[in-house]
Structures are given as structure tokens and as C-alpha cells.
Amino acid sequence: MPTLILVRHGRSTANTSGVLAGRTPGVSLDERGAAQAAALPGRLSALTFAAAVSSPLQRCRETLRPLLEARPGLALHTEDRISECDYGDWSGRKLAELSDEPLMRIVQQHPSAAAFPGGESMRAMQARAVEAVRDWNARIEAEHGEDAAYVMCSHGDIIKALVADALGMHLDLFQRIQADPCSVTAIRYTRLRPFLLRLGDTGDFASLAPREQAIEADAAGDTATDAAVGGGAGAP
Q1: What is the mean pLDDT of residues 131-144?
Q2: pTM of the entire structure?
Q3: Which of 44, 84, 95, 110 has its CA 20 to 30 A from that of 229?
Q4: Rounded to whole angstroms, how far apart are CA atoms 40 and 7?
Q5: Residue 91 gets which letter from DSSP?
């Protein structure tokens, strides 16, 4: 079965402003995110893709744009089922403000029980994303063969939920997974089981530095804290 190359969108204006963007329209890549997207064709140059699949949200389409420009024959498909989690009434709010909400503790420690007011549950988010990947696996294999690869640009919580599914992990453990902006995660699907080949690969090891340096990187929106919602670490 095909190999899925999952790309989280580049750093967005919501990341740098500490806002849970969700599906709020008009959230674009910031300057660093645009540079991350521009570097993506070089990072993926060794791979041949049968198709490119994107969340409908602007920041994902902007992330894939340089790759598509570098590969004029690569078809782009929009897939609503890999759109960002519907955070409902939480969308557009500051993450610092949301940290005081009682629901946030459930989101962090028992996400399978979390449902966002006016939005969707995290169980539903994972189910639709997994269904989308399974459908695309079957489509890519039927049209291009079992050794094909395709690239899919989505959001942090979606990618973490897909990785959890591939590893056979309960959704309640998915907050232990990290996918930074414009990171690459690769999953190879087979008849019997998926194999996680790469996880959150950015080629940048700054977030592994001693704590003082990591805090400086986080202040720039580049790495993680414990507030994992919207893709992990408050980086929607």
C-alpha cells in the first residue's frame, strides 16, 4: 500500500499571536512559515508523488504552493476530512485565556472525552481523518500501484491523531506526540500494519536544546510547551 507523507502547514499568523485559529478564515503563513514552505520542495526532492492532498484551509494551501510550482504536473486535491479540528466557540481565542477553561484539562489528559462547545469531539476528528487516509490509500494504490507515495498537508491535531492510529495508540495518548510547523511525518501502510518512518521531522534540532534556549525558541513560536491543543503546544 502507499506511503503517506504528512506535512503540517508552516508557521502561521495565529501561531505567532498565540491564537487557536481552528477553521477561522484568513489565517495565512507568517514570514517564517512562508520560508518554511519555500524550503519544502528541496526537502522532499528525493521523493516522487502520485498526488498532493490538502486541507481546504489557507495556511495548508499556501504551504503546498511552492511544491506544486516546482512540480507542475503534480495534481492537487482538496480533502475536507483533513481540515482542522472544529474548535467551535474556542476558535479565535487566545491560548493563554483557554488554559483556564476546565475543558482544557480534559483535552490534555482525556481527549477521547473532549468535545468543543459549538464544535466537534476529538473522537470525531480522528475518525474522519483516518477514514480520509484509508480512502486515499486505496485510491492511490488503485491508480498508481502499491509503491506509490503521496503528500498530504494538514494540521497538528490531525497529524497527531493519524500517527496515534498508525501506532495502535489510544487517542488519550495522542498528546504525547509532537508535530511542529512544516514538519514531515511519513507512514507506510501495508496489508497487515502501518509503519511510522518519520515523525515531526523539520531538520531543526533547536527545540532539543537546554531548557533556557528552548524557551527562547518557543517565544518565537518554533517549539512546544505543555499546552497541546491545535496541533500541540499551542501552535494551531
Answers
A1: 97
A2: 0.89
A3: 44
A4: 9
A5: T
